[in-house]
């Protein structure tokens, strides 16, 4: 039960932290997109942990992870204006050189996240298998974009 509460708290804190950080960083697109990616990382960590059985699956936590991904998918692409390729960013020049390809990857991410939201229903996916089916494609969309448009760590 402690793991369940901790997972739910992490998800809630990540969501609230995203809102506060985005508001603070609104005038700096690099900081804003980094804040959004921090929330995506938290949601991916929670979701991945539940998919692997490292964290007990809880429908509400699954729904929170999916909702975080959906919110990020709707906003993220707005924070790559011309000139924001300079500075402390993990974005590769390919984002600006192949904007149509980047926008296509963002559309794939948004579509996968929307399908996951639809599959999650009111309470969240009923069990871990339903969660895997909904959340797995979202993670794959993230990975596909990172392969081309993000610097390797």
Automatic annotation (TrEMBL):
InterPro entries: Cyt_c/b562, Cyt_c_II, Cyt_c_prime. Residues 1-25 form the signal peptide. Pfam families: Cytochrom_C_2. Keywords: Electron transport, Heme, Iron, Metal-binding, Signal, Transport. This is Cytochrome c. The lineage of its organism: Bacteria, Pseudomonadati, Pseudomonadota, Alphaproteobacteria, Hyphomicrobiales.
């Amino acid at each position: 039960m402690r793991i369940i509460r901790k997972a739910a708290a992490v998800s809630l804190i990540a969501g609230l932290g995203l809102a506060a950080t985005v508001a603070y960083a609104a005038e700096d697109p690099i900081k804003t997109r980094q804040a959004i990616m921090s929330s995506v990382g938290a949601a991916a960590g929670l979701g991945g942990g539940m998919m692997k059985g490292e964290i007990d699956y809880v429908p509400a936590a699954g729904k929170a992870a999916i909702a975080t991904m959906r919110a990020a998918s709707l906003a993220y692409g707005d924070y790559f204006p011309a000139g924001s390729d300079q500075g402390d960013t993990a974005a590769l020049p390919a984002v600006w050189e192949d904007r149509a390809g980047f926008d296509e990857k963002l559309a794939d991410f948004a579509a996968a996240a929307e399908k996951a939201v639809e599959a999650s229903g009111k309470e969240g996916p009923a069990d871990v298998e339903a969660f895997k089916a909904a959340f797995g494609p979202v993670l794959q969309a993230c990975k596909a974009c990172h392969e081309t448009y993000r610097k390797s760590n």
